[in-house]
């Protein structure tokens, strides 16, 4: 299936693995499990659930998410939120960044990948003083967050975003977003 006209690539993002000793997933075992399932050209980046896979053309984004979620349960006995993006959407993730003046602080600039676009009503809930100097902007199914004083002190956590917005999401810092872009090329 490698590079064939009947396949396409996805960036698959797992939330909450290998954090603080919880939800341990060895990347070599994950790559092997994905390769033994319906995917090829499997690559991972660092230990936090960043995966690039090639899938058959008949597999949609939702098919890929469902297959990886099932694999996580069947292979690792973990129920893990999974979000995916087709390769052709990844360049717009970088181009649509509403904070271009913040890219020189890649550890403070994060992109949250949502399973669906948050509604305007839900986004309005993020416009209060609760989050201090943190800046948030939504573009389609992505949220861009600049953490003014870092993520450790922010009240704008993944759980808070999911609660307020009613979506499943997982975030990556700007460095990781760029590295995944590089791995796609």
List the helices and strands and how they pair.
Elements: E1 7-14, H1 27-36, E2 40-45, E3 50-56, H2 61-76, E4 82-86, H3 90-95, E5 109-114, H4 120-124, E6 135-139, E7 142-146, H5 158-165, E8 169-173, H6 174-184
Q: How does this model look, in words?
A:
The protein is an alpha+beta fold and about 180 residues long. The chain has two domains: about 5-90, 2-Layer Sandwich (Alpha-Beta Plaits), CATH 3.30.70; about 95-185, Alpha-Beta Plaits (2-Layer Sandwich), CATH 3.30.70. Helices cover about 30% and strands about 25% of the residues. It has helices at about 25-35, 60-75, 90-95, 120-125, 160-165, 175-185; strands at about 5-15, 40-45, 50-55, 80-85, 110-115, 135-140, 140-145, 170-175. A four-stranded antiparallel β-sheet has the order 2-3-1-4, with helices on both faces. Strand 2 (about 40-45) and strand 3 form a beta hairpin. The longest helix has 16 residues, at about 60-75. It is globular. The chain starts with 6 loop residues before the first strand and ends with a helix. Mean pLDDT is about 90; it is low at about 1-5.
Order of helices and strands: EHEEHEHEHEEHEH
Question: Overall mean pLDDT score?
Answer: 91
Helix content, binned percent:
25-40%
CATH topology of the largest domain: Alpha-Beta Plaits
Q: How many strands in all?
A: 8
Strand order, main sheet: write it out: 2-3-1-4
The proportion of strand residues reads 25-35%
Rg calculated over all Cα atoms: 16 Å
The appropriate CATH architecture of the largest domain is 2-Layer Sandwich
Please tally the helical runs, counting DSSP H or I stretches of 4 or more residues.
6
- Indicate the overall shape: globular
- Please state the structural category: alpha+beta
User: Major β-sheet, in short?
Assistant: 4 strands, antiparallel
CATH class of the largest domain: Alpha Beta
Please, how many domains?
Answer: 2
Residue stretches low in confidence (pLDDT < 50, at least 5 long) are: 1-5
Termini separation comes to: 18 Å
């Amino acid at each position: 299936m490698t590079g064939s006209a009947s396949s396409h690539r996805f960036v698959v993002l797992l939330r909450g693995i290998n954090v603080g000793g919880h939800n341990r997933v060895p990347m070599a075992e994950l790559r092997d499990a994905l390769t033994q399932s319906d995917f090829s050209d499997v690559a991972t980046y660092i230990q936090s659930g960043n995966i690039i896979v090639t899938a058959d053309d008949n597999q949609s984004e939702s098919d890929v998410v469902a297959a990886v979620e099932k694999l996580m349960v069947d292979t690792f006995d973990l129920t893990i939120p999974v979000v995916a993006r087709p390769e052709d959407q990844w360049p717009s993730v970088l181009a649509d960044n509403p904070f271009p003046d913040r890219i020189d602080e890649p550890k403070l600039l994060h992109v949250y990948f949502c399973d669906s676009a948050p509604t305007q009503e839900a986004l309005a809930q993020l416009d209060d003083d609760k989050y201090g100097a943190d800046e948030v902007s939504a573009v389609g199914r992505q949220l861009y967050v600049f953490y003014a004083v870092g993520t450790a002190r922010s009240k704008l956590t993944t759980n808070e975003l999911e609660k307020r917005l009613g979506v499943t999401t997982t975030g990556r810092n700007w460095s990781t977003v760029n590295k995944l872009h590089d791995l796609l090329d």
